[in-house]
Amino acid sequence: xxxxxxxxxxxxxxxxxxxxxxxxxxxxxxxxxxxxxxxxxxxxxxxxxxxxxxxxxxxxxxxxxxxxxxxxxxxxxxxxxxxxxxxxxxxxxxxxxxxxxxxxxxxxxxxxxxxxxxxxxxxxxxxxxxxxxxxxxxxxxxxxxxxxxxx
Length: 151
Description:
Blueprint: H1 3-24, H2 40-62, H3 75-95, H4 97-112, H5 117-138
Helix pairs in contact: 1-2, 3-4, 4-5
């Protein structure tokens, strides 16, 4: 744990979460053909970011001072996940939410911890399908489910 980095990161994430919540109130509360408005997800994600950043800040304050070790940041893993997130955002409309989220999560899980493919595939598949079912079927929202060429 790098206390200085975590402290500054928690403050930045807190401000970012507040910004998400504030700007999401400016989005219309309903969209065409959907009972769930486009403002719900950004507001909820902003609230989660605020809660998690407060938790991180608390953990940093609570942590006992440790001997200073030269901790190296794992830039390679960060860049792999960052590039995967960029591709995910760019190709979401073309490959659909379910496939795109599954592939992004699978790449992320394997980047963080190599091996255990069955566990990664199971979690990525259940999460992407579960979120799609909850949002589209239960909440009657809209999102790109299947690739454009299959629709």
